């Protein structure tokens, strides 16, 4: 716009953005100069959001009062205002991106059925989808592992990849980064993120939301962004602002210097522990101070990546010299880097703030000099353990009460070893991977079926550095490390810790050390650039010799794509109830996430992953006990092979080759034959071919152009009662699909053999699979199920149907309630929905008939997703819970107060009727904004957005 909005001062200025380059900006200092507010005291991350609000102020969706409210942010004020925030772009990964494409395709189909223009459903801002979540570690420890795993990936996901390719051509704003390039957040950091955006003659900061909670990793580059559910992302794509409650902004003052031997991973585990205890859930965190200024962008990105683990919306580092140095090191255009410096300087936002320069809600002080080597686990990333104390901590948990997060075993069983079952016919053989064939290629609309490329993959999975017979000779015990994975965007983006892992492997090989044969080892670099610098440093070979050969470029072990263990190992774990361990350089270690058979999962730096793979057990005090004996029979301690800081520093320039980054990212659409061979339909509206991977979701089955009246919640039954810290991993299906599960039974009935099930993540585009996996996690505990004779709670997705009293799977009970036309509700404890931002954790309950979730508290993203799907989030008053309310699950429920005009966070009444008579409980309606109330009235974000599009066409949204 050329003229300021009424009530706002003139802020459009033309500035110098480098030699011979000028551009227009919305100047934030002009607001302060006009006496509008003290902008220079605002946290930098809030100024970036303010610039977007100012730039999009149109007097309708975004008004002068919105600008004034954010510009006048007060550090200690109550948070009642909402911010309408337009982001510059959207980032997707394929597990969450495929459902987004399904929803957009369904919106096009619904638009056509409603007499509208399907082409009106089109992203109005750039959308980038990185295919990185579908590869699994089947082969490992050999030079053939990468190629073998990629062949399996393409065979398993042929239908999904065809659909992704359809979306790539159907939606002009969608860019796809093919499989085998790298992890979404690392590709974003190294390539996709813009130093500065330009549109319609204006320059403005890059900003984004992504359908993965670790989108926050980009905060390390000075880019504002966070994770949202797919449903929120879709609305942002269609030109609507995201409505965010005005946040607190927590300043984290870093000072001092990391001591020798401490890594960025150790720092982030300490920050995660500290900030979780401080309570930063839903808040913006901004790092500042001399310690923050000294951190490189990879170190900053490691800290920013873990924002979901410490609960913050963001973990932001302002743009400064380190930012520009990283942009240059990763091959960004010099003129764009110069423009970035000039822009942020003109806006008064360049440079790391020092203490006292910014008004923060609270400041947390952290001395980098106090950081020590650590790990975290065995179930939560915030549970930090000083490295020397791991042995004692594991022993304590081993015999602790399960109610106190222990494993409930007798202490004297910790040292007992168990023999592996014998292999068939008395011979040992490594686990054979199932033969994988791609499904039949469905006929394209109006054409013959595309050629079927059958890939037989019955090769044996490999274990490194030993003959197959060695496995049979092994026994197995509690605390044994069975998975050791250098994985995850958190650490593979950081050359310092990756080079340290390679150097430790080199030192270990020089002493003749090997990895215990029962350990499944893998290296999944976050991008091919990592392989380049490890190779140049001469470190790929020693890593491979220890079993850490490159297995994939993508998210693997950290999201549960660790692949199978040896069948005899899994049998022994089950037979003897063994508490075995995984060690990984990841960011998540929730129960059953890494592998369903492994109960203890520890996060640690890449070099420690290698060290514990060598040790083969977590019950070791690495300060006083040797990892192993060398080839001469002498003990080798961790300190003997730990790389010096100067050794790492000498190799770091190898990771700063701008030309290498440009070469790797020059042409992402071509060069991978497996991707280029994937056929795709070219219609504007998807044909919804018969598939067990992709199906038209039912959200628009009864769509009308005007929203129906809100149906009251009356006569509802309880579907489940959960305790504290139920994560989206517990709610939303992930990992392997058991044959003896509702989803497995449906697939078998649909003609899919168990060997071809693939994973829940790969089938997120099919609602019939996903709804059957909702609340079906093997570790979830429904408190409606009475304890067994031993007093232990039953795990798994079961419930009690009322009033029959029948014990059924949750899906079967929900189906029965639907047939009886009975709505259902779910009760939960604190932090309901913690973990990854998974839209199926809200979509699945909706399709099960869940009308409301009543909890002590909600994780930010999941609460918003529930609201976005039209499920009512309700919160107990402070100090109240299911137990204090006397709710047992056999009652009927009604919610009063949802009629008429609704207000954010208003009080409503839960009416409980049962054998004890009628009780009335006051709850808080956790619809936090007027926009969320509108979503509820429309039946969710998707119908809301489609009605807007059909009402005013493409002008319903704004880009930028």
Task: Break the fold down into its secondary structure elements and pairings.
Layout: E1 12-16, E2 22-26, H1 28-33, H2 44-55, H3 64-71, E3 82-85, E4 89-93, H4 94-113, E5 127-130, H5 145-156, H6 158-170, E6 174-177, H7 184-192, E7 197-199, E8 202-204, E9 207-210, E10 224-227, H8 230-237, E11 242-245, E12 249-255, H9 264-278, E13 284-288, H10 290-294, H11 297-305, H12 307-310, E14 314-316, H13 321-329, H14 334-346, E15 362-367, E16 374-376, E17 384-386, H15 390-399, E18 417-419, H16 468-473, E19 475-477, E20 481-486, H17 489-492, H18 495-510, E21 520-523, H19 528-536, H20 540-545, H21 567-576, E22 581-584, E23 600-603, H22 606-615, E24 628-629, E25 635-636, H23 638-641, H24 645-651, H25 658-664, H26 673-676, E26 717-721, H27 728-731, H28 742-749, H29 767-773, E27 798-800, E28 807-809, H30 810-819, E29 824-827, H31 840-847, E30 850-855, H32 860-868, E31 872-876, H33 882-885, E32 892-896, E33 907-914, E34 917-925, H34 930-938, H35 941-952
Parallel strand pairs: 4-5, 4-9, 5-6, 9-10, 12-13, 12-15, 13-14, 20-21, 20-22, 22-23, 26-29, 29-30, 30-31
Antiparallel strand pairs: 1-2, 3-11, 7-8, 16-17, 18-19, 24-25, 27-28, 31-34, 32-33, 33-34
Helix pairs in contact: 2-3, 4-6, 4-8, 18-22, 18-24, 28-29, 29-31, 34-35
Mind explaining what this structure looks like?
- By secondary structure, the chain is an alpha/beta fold.
- The protein folds into 6 domains: 65 residues, no CATH class; 168 residues, 2-Layer Sandwich (Aconitase, domain 3), CATH 3.30.499; 92 residues, Aconitase, Domain 2 (3-Layer(aba) Sandwich), CATH 3.40.1060; 218 residues, Aconitase, domain 3, CATH 3.30.499; 171 residues, Aconitase, domain 4; 41 residues, no CATH class.
- Helix content is 32%, strand content 15%.
- It has 35 helices and 34 strands.
- The strands form 11 sheets. A 7-stranded mixed sheet has the order 26-29-30-31-34-33-32.
- A hairpin with a 2-residue loop joins strand 7 and strand 8.
- Helix 18 crosses helix 24 and helix 28 packs antiparallel against helix 29.
- The C terminus is likely disordered.
């Amino acid at each position: 716009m050329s003229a300021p909005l009424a009530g706002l001062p003139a802020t459009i200025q033309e500035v110098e953005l480098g030699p011979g380059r000028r551009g227009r900006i919305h100047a934030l200092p002009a607001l302060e100069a006009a006496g509008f507010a003290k902008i220079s005291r605002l946290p930098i991350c809030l100024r970036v959001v303010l610039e977007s609000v100012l730039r999009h102020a149109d007097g309708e969706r975004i008004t002068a009062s919105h600008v004034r409210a954010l510009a006048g942010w007060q550090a200690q004020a109550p948070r009642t205002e909402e911010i309408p925030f337009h982001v510059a772009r959207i980032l997707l990964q394929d597990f969450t991106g495929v459902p987004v494409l399904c929803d957009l395709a369904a919106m096009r189909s619904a638009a056509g059925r409603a007499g509208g223009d399907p082409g009106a459903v089109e992203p109005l801002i750039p959308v980038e989808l990185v295919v990185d979540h579908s590869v699994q570690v089947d082969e490992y420890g050999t030079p053939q592992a990468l190629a073998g795993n990629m062949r399996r990936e393409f065979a398993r996901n042929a239908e999904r990849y065809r659909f992704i390719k359809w979306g790539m051509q159907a939606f002009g704003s969608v860019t796809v980064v093919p499989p085998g390039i790298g992890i979404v957040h690392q590709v974003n950091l190294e390539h996709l993120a813009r130093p500065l955006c330009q549109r319609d003659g204006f320059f403005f900061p890059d900003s984004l939301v992504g359908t993965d909670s670790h989108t926050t990793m980009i905060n390390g580059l000075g880019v504002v962004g966070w994770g949202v559910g797919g449903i929120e992302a879709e609305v942002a794509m269609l030109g609507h602002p995201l409505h965010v409650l005005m946040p607190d902004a927590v300043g984290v003052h870093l000072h001092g210097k990391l001591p020798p031997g401490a890594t960025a991973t150790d720092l982030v585990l300490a920050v995660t522990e500290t900030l979780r205890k401080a309570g930063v859930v839903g808040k913006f965190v901004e790092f500042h101070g001399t310690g923050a200024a000294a951190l490189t962008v990879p170190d900053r990105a490691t800290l920013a990546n873990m924002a979901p683990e410490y609960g913050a919306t963001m973990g932001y580092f302002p743009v400064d010299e380190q930012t520009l140095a990283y942009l240059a090191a990763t091959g960004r255009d010099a003129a764009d880097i110069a423009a970035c410096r000039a822009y942020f300087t003109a806006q008064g936002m360049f440079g790391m703030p020092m203490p006292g320069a910014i008004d923060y809600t609270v400041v947390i002080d952290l001395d980098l000099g106090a950081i020590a080597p650590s790990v975290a686990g065995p179930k939560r990333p915030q549970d930090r353990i000083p490295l020397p104390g791991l042995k004692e901590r594991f022993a304590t948990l081993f015999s602790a009460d399960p109610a106190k997060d222990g494993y409930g075993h007798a202490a004297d069983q910790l040292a007992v070893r168990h023999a592996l079952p014998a292999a068939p016919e008395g011979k040992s053989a490594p686990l054979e991977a199932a033969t994988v064939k791609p499904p039949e290629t469905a006929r394209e609309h109006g054409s013959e079926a595309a050629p079927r490329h059958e890939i037989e993959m019955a090769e044996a999975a490999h274990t490194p550095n030993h003959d197959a017979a060695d496995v049979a000779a092994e026994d197995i015990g509690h605390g044994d490390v069975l998975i050791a994975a250098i994985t995850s965007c958190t650490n593979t983006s950081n050359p310092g810790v990756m080079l340290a892992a390679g150097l430790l492997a080199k030192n270990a090989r020089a002493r003749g050390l090997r990895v215990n044969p029962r350990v499944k080892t893998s290296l999944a670099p976050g991008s091919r650039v990592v392989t380049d610098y490890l190779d140049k440093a001469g470190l790929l070979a020693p890593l491979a010799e220890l079993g850490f050969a490159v297995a994939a470029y993508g998210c693997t072990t950290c999201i549960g794509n660790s692949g199978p263990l040896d069948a005899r190992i899994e049998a022994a774990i089950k037979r003897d109830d063994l508490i075995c361990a995984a060690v990984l350089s990841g960011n998540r270690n929730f129960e059953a996430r890494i592998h369903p058979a492994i109960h203890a999962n520890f996060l640690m730096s890449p070099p420690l992953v290698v060290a514990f793979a060598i040790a083969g057990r977590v019950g070791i005090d690495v300060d006083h006990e040797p990892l192993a004996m060398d080839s001469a029979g002498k003990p080798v301690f961790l300190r003997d092979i730990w790389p010096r800081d100067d050794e790492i520093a000498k190799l770091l320039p190898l990771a700063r080759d701008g030309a290498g980054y440009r070469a790797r990212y020059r042409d992402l659409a071509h060069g991978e034959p497996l991707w280029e061979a994937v056929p795709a339909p070219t219609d504007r509206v998807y044909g919804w071919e018969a598939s067990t991977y992709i199906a038209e979701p039912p959200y628009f089955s009864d769509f009308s152009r005007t929203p129906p009246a809100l149906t009251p919640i009356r006569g509802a039954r309880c579907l489940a009662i959960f305790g504290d810290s139920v994560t989206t991993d517990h709610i939303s299906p992930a990992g392997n699909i058991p044959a003896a599960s509702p989803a497995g039974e449906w697939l078998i009935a649909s003609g899919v053999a168990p060997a071809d099930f693939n994973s829940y993540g790969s089938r997120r585009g099919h609602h019939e699979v996903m709804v059957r996996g909702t609340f079906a996690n093997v570790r979830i505990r429904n408190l409606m199920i009475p304890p067994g004779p031993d007093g232990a709670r039953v795990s798994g997705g079961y419930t009690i149907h009322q009033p029959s009293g029948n014990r059924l799977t949750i899906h079967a009970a929900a189906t029965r309630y639907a047939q009886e036309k009975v709505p259902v509700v779910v009760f939960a404890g604190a932090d309901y929905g913690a973990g990854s931002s998974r839209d199926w954790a809200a979509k699945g309950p909706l399709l099960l008939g869940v009308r409301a979730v009543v909890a002590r508290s909600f994780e930010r993203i999941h609460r918003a997703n529930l609201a976005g799907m039209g499920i009512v989030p309700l919160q107990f008053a402070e100090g109240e819970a299911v137990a204090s309310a006397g709710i047992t699950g056999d009652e009927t429920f009604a919610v009063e107060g949802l009629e008429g005009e609704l207000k954010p966070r208003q009080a409503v009444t839960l009416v409980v009727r049962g054998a004890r008579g009628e009780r009335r409980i006051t709850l808080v309606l956790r619809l936090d904004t007027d926009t969320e109330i509108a979503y509820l009235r429309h039946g969710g974000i998707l119908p809301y957005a489609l009605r807007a599009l059909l009402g005013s066409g493409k002008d319903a949204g704004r880009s930028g």
